[in-house]
Amino acid sequence: xxxxxxxxxxxxxxxxxxxxxxxxxxxxxxxxxxxxxxxxxxxxxxxxxxxxxxxxxxxxxxxxxxxxxxxxxxxxxxxxxxxxxxxxxxxxxxxxxxxxxxxxxxxxxxxxxxxxxxxxxxxxxxxxxxxxxxxxxxxxxxxxxxxxxxxxxxxxxxxxxxxxxxxxxxxxxxxxxxxxxxxxxxxxxxxxxxxxxxxxxxxxxxxxxxxxxxxxxxxxxxxxxxxxxxxxxxxxxxxxxxxxxxxxxxxxxxxxxxxxxxxxxxxxxxxxxxxxxxxxxxxxxxxxxxxxxxxxxxxxxxxxxxxxxxxxxxxxxxxxxxxxxxxxxxxxxxxxxxxxxxxxxxxxxxxxxxxxxxxxxxxxxxxxxxxxxxxxxxxxxxxxxxxxxxxxxxxxxxxxxxxxxxxxxxxxxxxxxxxxxxxxxxxxxxxxxxxxx
Amino acid sequence: xxxxxxxxxxxxxxxxxxxxxxxxxxxxxxxxxxxxxxxxxxxxxxxxxxxxxxxxxxxxxxxxxxxxxxxxxxxxxxxxxxxxxxxxxxxxxxxxxxxxxxxxxxxxxxxxxxxxxxxxxxxxxxxxxxxxxxxxxxxxxxxxxxxxxxxxxxxxxxxxxxxxxxxxxxxxxxxxxxxxxxxxxxxxxxxxxxxxxxxxxxxxxxxxxxxxxxxxxxxxxxxxxxxxxxxxxxxxxxxxxxxxxxxxxxxxxxxxxxxxxxxxxxxxxxxxxxxxxxxxxxxxxxxxxxxxxxxxxxxxxxxxxxxxxxxxxxxxxxxxxxxxxxxxxxxxxxxxxxxxxxxxxxxxxxxxxxxxxxxxxxxxxxxxxxxxxxxxxxxxxxxxxxxxxxxxxxxxxxxxxxxxxxxxxxxxxxxxxxxxxxxxxxxxxxxxxxxxx
Amino acid sequence: xxxxxxxxxxxxxxxxxxxxxxxxxxxxxxxxxxxxxxxxxxxxxxxxxxxxxxxxxxxxxxxxxxxxxxxxxxxxxxxxxxxxxxxxxxxxxxxxxxxxxxxxxxxxxxxxxxxxxxxxxxxxxxxxxxxxxxxxxxxxxxxxxxxxxxxxxxxxxxxxxxxxxxxxxxxxxxxxxxxxxxxxxxxxxxxxxxxxxxxxxxxxxxxxxxxxxxxxxxxxxxxxxxxxxxxxxxxxxxxxxxxxxxxxxxxxxxxxxxxxxxxxxxxxxxxxxxxxxxxxxxxxxxxxxxxxxxxxxxxxxxxxxxxxxxxxxxxxxxxxxxxxxxxxxxxxxxxxxxxxxxxxxxxxxxxxxxxxxxxxxxxxxxxxxxxxxxxxxxxxxxxxxxxxxxxxxxxxxxxxxxxxxxxxxxxxxxxxxxxxxxxxxxxxxxxxxxxxx
Amino acid sequence: xxxxxxxxxxxxxxxxxxxxxxxxxxxxxxxxxxxxxxxxxxxxxxxxxxxxxxxxxxxxxxxxxxxxxxxxxxxxxxxxxxxxxxxxxxxxxxxxxxxxxxxxxxxxxxxxxxxxxxxxxxxxxxxxxxxxxxxxxxxxxxxxxxxxxxxxxxxxxxxxxxxxxxxxxxxxxxxxxxxxxxxxxxxxxxxxxxxxxxxxxxxxxxxxxxxxxxxxxxxxxxxxxxxxxxxxxxxxxxxxxxxxxxxxxxxxxxxxxxxxxxxxxxxxxxxxxxxxxxxxxxxxxxxxxxxxxxxxxxxxxxxxxxxxxxxxxxxxxxxxxxxxxxxxxxxxxxxxxxxxxxxxxxxxxxxxxxxxxxxxxxxxxxxxxxxxxxxxxxxxxxxxxxxxxxxxxxxxxxxxxxxxxxxxxxxxxxxxxxxxxxxxxxxxxxxxxxxxx
Lengths: 437, 437, 437, 437
Description:
By secondary structure, the first copy, chain A, is of the alpha/beta class. Chain A contains 13 helices and 14 strands. Strand 9 of chain A pairs antiparallel with strand 8 of chain B, so a sheet runs across the interface.
């Protein structure tokens, strides 16, 4: 079967590259991936998958960091204008993006694959040495760019879906292919997990492109920091700073006090802690006591408990800083992810598989170095006794690295990704008993 | 002569109201009063005044809070399109606005009058009960509005100029009528004073519309707080807040430390102190250590010395807060005014004059309650042994008061202003010896 | 009668100087003036006064800034050992110090005089050029000194009492001579006022020695700032700073946040504001998260309302700073005084009297420049429609001024004080009707 | 030979317990261990060691956290009164405590052992269930206590010295037994290392009592955090807070700003960071602007580089906070230790030895959890290509743990310690070649 998969991967390589370039050209930020999601849904349908979209795949209450209704409308319209599939677009209105394909054969474990699909609010470079520029598929959406490889992820997802569909009768159990919206800012995974989509999953895996050589892979990434992202607005009362200073409730003093105390939250004996007030804006005029201050904050911890510790302390600081100046405050949850690690047995399985497949080398990197909300899915499956792994996939990224305006990937990685991720599904089902011991 | 002036004032009342409405319709913020200034200059020329504009009336180095070159260009073009007088516009390029008219007869003291002419960056209301709306002269310049009465001041200036010109042969000495740009934010007066325009002036007076009844005046305002306005930018170094927090130089921590210490500057035994950080904006993204923070600040004191004390302390705080986080900083002067008070003999003269004129009542308000850069001119004249007064003129302002989007004045005040300010010139010249004893 | 009083003052001058030296030699800080008070009480009794001490003259709940029970005991014993009058000492146990003498004749207004009697926690100099040193009456109580002239005040009080007693039949009404404890730190007056001792008083006056020439007086001091004195303890939780920092509740971070916010309380348009954290001590060891922080604080305002504004803001800051670090806090009231001013009619009366008496000159100083709790008595009397004045009395103080370790007064001021204060009582009674119009 | 050592250890057990109790009864804090050091020196001399004390064993410039000269004198006198050995006391004046014994035989590697000898400023409990109380050897030095087991360490050092001396001819190389002063606060080791005493050492080992069972040992502790201890004094200028607040330079505002910024120093990607302001005291009186603030600070890092990073940031914060308030500052180094870890080959050697000896069990604890200045010696030896290990020795400590007022150890650990540490010397020499490969 492996041979068949390799052949198939070769055959569809160019199609998948075309998908990747199409997604790259029409990037959409989190919760506005209307065009991307509708094309994926239609394709899954065509491949014979049961397709879940909208409220069938996510819990709308748990979406975090949603754009304004106005923006959602505008981007929906743009998706329609740019060739989104209308039938599906209708079901995705107001930020109900993403798509899930389900396929099964016989009785056996359920394996889930996750591919994230959103872009970033970055203006793509127009340098001619940038591949998307000189090949003509650079972003047409102003200020939006696939600068983190999710265009590649989404395209690979469609390729893997095609290969699995073709080999459907070799499945022994169920496969769920999850195209997740809003990974940037860790905003989307929670809503899929709380909808219950991972409840019956025995094994889940994902991958992310990395700047290693094509063919080099990390067999399992761990050490994802848990994180909370939230926006704070402190509401005070304005007053003329020269004439009636005593009448103001100074939101900027409140915010400044909060900043100093947030960074001062005590370190934790059990692991790493982080906090950042990434943005602040306050006040309306030079001679007015500032009556509003907005802060864009994140906390992190090397475990979910430590992240919660940081968050709880942060909330207390914001509350009391506000009260100190007789101000009120709002907190808006903008993103969240637990900590996460790949299971050792899955890492071993990936390593064995690459050996069997040939043509891959193993990186010794297993540290994730950041946060990612695939950990929601990993954690849910692991809680239920299942296993999870997130693979680092060398795509020798070009440019100044992820999230830079000239980020690009080596498309030779397409075939490597298709083969590894497709065969892994069957390999897991074959070995499922020993994996779950 | 008083009778003649009263008659003349009645005759030109409507013309002056037209000027006021015209200026109101085409408001221009500080250093962009190209149209306003050029019309004033042409009119002064037509009335027989020697006219000073551009580098002849101000020291360009001492202009504070100048808009960007780009904005200056755009507004100059707008002025031209909206009927500015080309001959003068050419001399006012790049923020050289304002105009001065000089007239003299015989030997005698020099009397200066000051009228400020700039508008505010406020969007005018479109409520129909707002007079400019229903009479059709509301602002056509988006986001700009005469919300502080300087349209009235400028028009009165032209009226007073006309009356004085008509009575030129009754002058005994020189008269300078100064149309000052950029009073808002106390940015313009200094540049006129350092140019030397007040050096030979024996008496200077000004006025400001007030919300008292039409006909009620404050015979002399005092207690103007000295002030410094300045913008600060702190430059740090960004870093990934999760991955490499130790590599950042956190401009927001620096700014927050500065905020708390600025408001903590010790009170002063000799009088009132004020400080305000009216606006702050910092940072570029949630997970990036903030590498820049901008602050919009003012300090005040009931004397120029106390204002300087506050400013010196503030600068030290900004410097050391920045250094604490290994950041650098820029400070840009945006405005400045000394403290100021009206001379008692001038107040008395105004009171006597109103009695002589009839039809005026005296307010018992003599406290200014704020800052105003006419104090630069007052101080300069007083330093040289001259006398100064700033008059509060009842115009029963309508709306929510100065600087609100529905501010308006009662045009019945026009005649009261014309008569009082014109006769005051002659009254001063007549009494100049006893005034300067 | 004036002549008689002058003669009497001459006669008792040396006795009063002896009293002053005796009090100087045995100084006692606030609420421990056992010896001083008992001697005064006995003397008042001998002079024929009705004498009030202990719970009869003050409300023990309202005493502020009381020393520990241990200290009260020790100082009581010292007073006994140093010649305190036992009969009265018994009634003064545990900080019930001070004494009041009441005398009356016929029907008429009630006049109260106030003399403060406490010393300061200052070590007196041993320089030989210091008069108390070379005349042998310097303090024998280690670390305690009359460095503010209250030894003089107390002695003058006894002299005035003697003169009034001798002229009892010339009184037309009642006289209360109040010897007040614990003026330093504004801790004592409130307890006397809330006991009701000023409720029936029509006129109250006091005096304070000043560094003007002997014979020069300020006829009435005003502008006393209202003030609140309080001690704060923040209670946190200790933890090993290296091992378990997350377990601590850091009282020092709470206190530091409070400090910066306290000094940042907004200035007030209606007058002067002050705040000071005069002392802080926190923490137990280098590697322990500080679990306690103590602060010694005062707020002031040029009116009682502004003082209350400052105090209310301060309390909110302390509360929320503590809560921010999950700490608790205690606040202990240590002193309080309202603002205060002398009545114009009383000032005029004093001026007329000095003219009548001859030998006095008038200072043009009427600004108090500080706080003093005689304002409690002034305010109470003024609230009830009465009149009050506090006189500045030149005693050409020697040394580095009040509260310095070499402070001293010129004893030639004794006679000036006796005459002025004694005659003032009769002068008030004589003029009481016009004074209260 | 092992058998001989075991026998000897049994024989001297009671003597060593007596030493321990004697040291416990006369505890001395760092740099005042005159009595302890002189007794040790004399005993080493009697056992035939070459003895180094005073300037021969340490570099007096590098002693940190020295008590005042006055205290040094007083404690020296106390040591003399309590039976210190005069001959050595003379050489130890002014804080030159500690002792080193050197012995050698034949050619071979140099092995150093380190024992720390100082007590803590803790008042010992007087509970009767506390062994030292009911056996009569509790501290007679008020406020000083061996609450960290250094009494045991010192006594064991003497026992090991005796055993080695008896087996001198079995040595193949040199042995240095270092009795180190001032380990508490990590103040003493540096001065011995910079004197050069470790320069020729091939192997160094130490031990610390732990609360494991008697017989249980940790074969090698690692993860010692690097640390810097320092005291800061900020010098401002006092002023009357009510009268002349503008004249003060507020040291408490400076210190409060420093506190908030110190705890805000950015976390480090390479490992753990710690900072603590353990104590603060500031100000002189409620109504005086605080003119001085003292802070007792420590920084730590999981590597020496991170500790230095924290320290450098801290110093910058203190400097700029002081300058912000126009204050000056002093920094006094009070202690310092690098990070440290035991070498794997040495750990293995200890494990093999315990197996050979029998009667020991191995703890799986290898994490130190704190700081300790033995790391100076370990680092120096490791830099020169040598090996180091620090052993955790179960003494089933009683009471509330190290540094508590009822801390105690189980004296049954004496024999376990004597045997293990003595045999280890010979074991190292025997295996020295393979250890240093």
